[in-house]
Amino acid sequence: PKIRVTDREGDEYLIEADVGISVMENLRDHDFGVEAICGGCCSCATCHVFVDDAWLPKLQPKSEAEAELVGETIFHKPNSRLSCQIRMTPDLDGLALTIAPEE
Ligand code: FES
């Protein structure tokens, strides 16, 4: 599956994603500046992304921990997600997201 990524400069990329790992892990291997300092344990929010609205219903809902942490970020919006909390699956082929600004 592919992920359609808009980086912090507004440039769009189509990346080949691996399934069974998180979206964050797929993003981290590229040059998008996703630091993922906590390694995916939902405590740093440096994997913050904005998911295109059309894709939001296809994702597993936020856990309480994710909702709380992402809600504390400066740039959070209704379509904010922590990409380490989204597991990449084949049916997410075409998932479109934007990397959130650095805090
Ligand atoms: Fe730290 Fe997602 S990688 S919260």
TrEMBL record:
Keyword Secreted: no
Keywords assigned: 2Fe-2S, Iron, Iron-sulfur, Metal-binding
Required cofactor(s): [2Fe-2S] cluster
Coiled coil feature spans: none
Gene Ontology terms describing biological process: P450-containing electron transport chain
Listed InterPro entries: 2Fe-2S_ferredoxin-like_sf, 2Fe-2S_ferredoxin-type, Adrenodoxin-like, Beta-grasp_dom_sf
Domain called 2Fe-2S ferredoxin-type: residue spans: 1-103
MF terms in GO: 2 iron, 2 sulfur cluster binding; electron transfer activity; metal ion binding
Name of one Pfam family that matches: Fer2
Record-linked PANTHER family: FERREDOXIN-2, MITOCHONDRIAL, FERREDOXIN/ADRENODOXIN
Family: Belongs to the adrenodoxin/putidaredoxin family.
Protein name, as recorded: Ferredoxin CarAc
Taxonomic lineage from the root: Bacteria, Pseudomonadati, Pseudomonadota, Alphaproteobacteria, Sneathiellales
Chain's gene name: carAc
